[in-house]
Amino acid sequence: MNPERTWQLWRRVLREPALAEAVIAGDVLERAAEFGLDPEQTEIAAEYAKNGPGVKWAVDAYRYRLLRVTPGAVAEGAPLTARALRQLGHDLDALAAGYVEASGWADRGPYVYTVTAEYLDHLERTLPAGPGSGPLLDLLRLERTAARLIARSARPGPAADGPTADEPAVPGWTGRGAVVRLEHEILGWLADPEGTSLADAPAAPGALLVRLDGSAELYTLTGIGGPAARAIEGLAAGLPVERIAADLGLDPSDAGLRGLLDSLTDWGLRDVTSC
Amino acid sequence: MTPLGIGLQYNPEVAEWFPFHESRIDAVEVLLDTVIAPLDSPHVILPDRLAEIDALVAAEPTVIAHSNYGAEFGFEPLERTAAVLRHVPAAQRFGSPWMSDHCFYGDGSWSDLWSSPVQFSRAEVNRLAERASRLQELLGVPLAHENAAYYVPCPGADLAEPDFLAALVEKAGTHLHIDLHNIHTNAVNFGAYTLKSYLDALPLDRVVEVHVAGGSWSGGVYHDWHDSRVPEPVWETLEDLLTRSRPGAVVLEVQGRAHSSHTRELDPHADAELILGDLERAALIWDRVYGPHSRRTTALPAAATTTAGPGEPA
User: Fold this and answer.
1) What share of chain A in percent tops pLDDT 90?
2) pLDDT class for A156, splitting at 50, 70, 90?
3) Buried/exposed code over B211-248 (b: 16+ C-beta within 10 A; e: otherwise)
4) How far apart, in whole angstroms, are the C-alpha atoms of residue A13 and residue A181?
5) What are the pLDDT digits (tens) for B119-163?
6) What are A197-248's pLDDT values in tens digits?
7) Is B279 in a helix, a strand, or coil?
8) Angstrom distance (rounded) from CA B47 to CA B31
9) Angstrom distances, CA of residue B240 to CA of B26, B67, B272
């Protein structure tokens, strides 16, 4: 039996409840077509089926571990969102379990920021509206942006079952920063999350620059105005400075714009060598 | 390799309350997976664990690097595994005298590892030996493979498990980390070998570390949960193994619910007694085999050993 195919089939058994049930029940031979198993895979599955109780234990243990590690990973990758969810009365273990089930019991293991971004995607789609849900979504988008920046900057390549392609590089932009648009004034909560309630954050449009800074905390947040946000979004989309200046009704030599560009260069967000 | 003596694994369920710094432990085995930074982050060690780990390294006991999730035996390029990206630099930072990991398949996942023993086949000896050899070269100190406890064998084996391990270390030039409780667990559950027959098939001069632990019965299966005292068959075999090999350390593993919801939460008071009792028993066996001054914490000062004449006790 080919070892790699054996391992791949075993991973399917762990993740696909119907396939696992067939192996545990010992009727996987009869149901091989249902799971798209070729003859070699069927032979492997039949071998596993000889130890049904062991397979059941392994599947249960896999789920136990995944449900146990996912909340921890998310708390590490998105600590502010985790804190806000607790503050707003959500059950983090139940939310993580919902995500794990919806994701097909996939396990990203040591790719904490990748799983964080996917989990926050899931929450954005599934969290019901309620007190504080608007500011919570702002916070969620903020940490998702940070998680994606971290994962993209650090990762040598895709995980076995992670994203399959890196985004194309933008000339002049390093990808180490991004703008997050906000619909609520959450800076007060960010400054004092224990002393304030996120649910009290008033509606107010705003923008933050998230930039990787090489520190232990990984990134820095900077409050920015509307024109700066548009300029940075333009740079991240690969627009030339002249076009960005024109869109803002500024001269390319405008002191404010040049100051912003210099700061972005100093922070390692602009790559002037490739311009 | 200088023999260290008796150690205790530094894992999250014990590290919070066991007095590592006040205990006379010859070595501390750090579970790398709990301190390394995510593979999609820029750090090697989690920044919020760095000070704690550096303090551990700066203290007296030698720190041994050990892992579950290196994934060096998976099918991804070796260069993308946690073993290369995190464990090698972490072990080097700790000054670990060797590093060990389990004989599991693995990739960018964690939760499936414990159910994924490698296939004990001749084909896998060749593939895994090449990867192990490269990893040891990157590491710069001995790499040891730990025999795993498992509950579902990987289909396709054409070698007995100990014969597979013997062939692997022979071909790769790597080393063995013998977990006596894992052998005991598999022997109880599958009956394919005994502790003695397993060890008899191995090149015991390759053993750099030994694990001892306890386990529990659940659902008619004996589990390697590290949640109870070391059982007698393991103690009996430890003395035999030490007599026939010269490992650098014997390390005790104690854990609570890391493995299963069916185990118990550790109790700092009662389990400290359990740990100290098992450490003492391990030290007694070690000393009986290698002598009263053979451990890091019991070695005589260098001056005393150098002034002893031929034939005199040092």
Assistant:
1) 80
2) low
3) bbbbbbeeeeebbbbbbbbbbebbbebbebbbeebebb
4) 42
5) 999 999 999 999 999 999 999 999 999 999 999 999 999 999 999
6) 999 999 999 999 999 998 888 999 999 999 999 999 999 999 999 999 999 9
7) helix
8) 16
9) 21, 26, 27
Interface predicted TM-score (ipTM): 0.88
Phi then psi for A112, rounded to 5 degrees?
Answer: -65, -40
* Residue A239, φ and ψ in degrees, nearest 5: -75, 145
Q: What is the pTM of this model?
A: 0.90
The CA distance from B79 to B137, in Å, is 13
* DSSP-assigned beta bridge partners for residue A241: none
- The answer to whether residues B21 and B59 touch, using CB atoms and an 8 Å cutoff, is yes
* Cβ–Cβ below 8 Å for A157 and B114: no
Q: Which residues pair with A206 in a beta bridge?
A: A182
Is A156 within 8 Å of A218 (Cβ atoms)? no
Within 13 Å and on the Cβ side, how many CA atoms surround B299?
Answer: 16
Determine, for residues A108 and B109 on separate chains, whether the beta-carbon distance falls below 8 Å: yes
Contact present, A98 and A132 (Cβ < 8 Å): no
Are residues A7 and B116, on separate chains, in Cβ contact within 8 Å?
A: yes
Cα–Cα distance for residue pair A16/A10, rounded to 1 Å: 10
Cα distances from A272 to residues A233, B64, B167, in angstroms, run 16, 45, 55
Closest Cα in chain B, distance from residue A185 (Å): 29
Model pLDDT, residue A245: 97
Find the length of chain A: 275
Interface of A with B in 51-80 (CB under 8 A): 51, 53-55, 57-58, 61-66, 69, 76-77
Q: Which two tokens stand for residue B251?
A: 């390390």
Q: Do B108 and A160 lie within an 8 Å CB cutoff?
A: yes
| CB-CB contact of B139 with B94 (8 Å) | no
Local structure of B177: helix, strand or coil: strand
Chains A–B, number of C-beta pairs less than 8 Å apart: 140
Residues from chain B contacting residue A156 (CB–CB below 8 Å): 79-80, 85
First to last CA, chain B: 19
For B106, name the nearest residue in chain A, comparing CA atoms only: A7
In sequence order, what E strands does chain B have?
Answer: 5-10, 27-31, 62-67, 99-102, 143-146, 175-179, 207-212, 216-218, 221-223, 249-252
- Token readout for A19 is 């396939």
The one-letter code for the residue type at B208 is V
- For residue B258, name the pLDDT band (cuts at 50, 70, 90): confident
Using the structure block, give the residue that is written with the tokens 């075993």. Answer: A10
Q: Which domains does chain B have, with CATH numbers?
A: 5-305 (3.20.20.150)
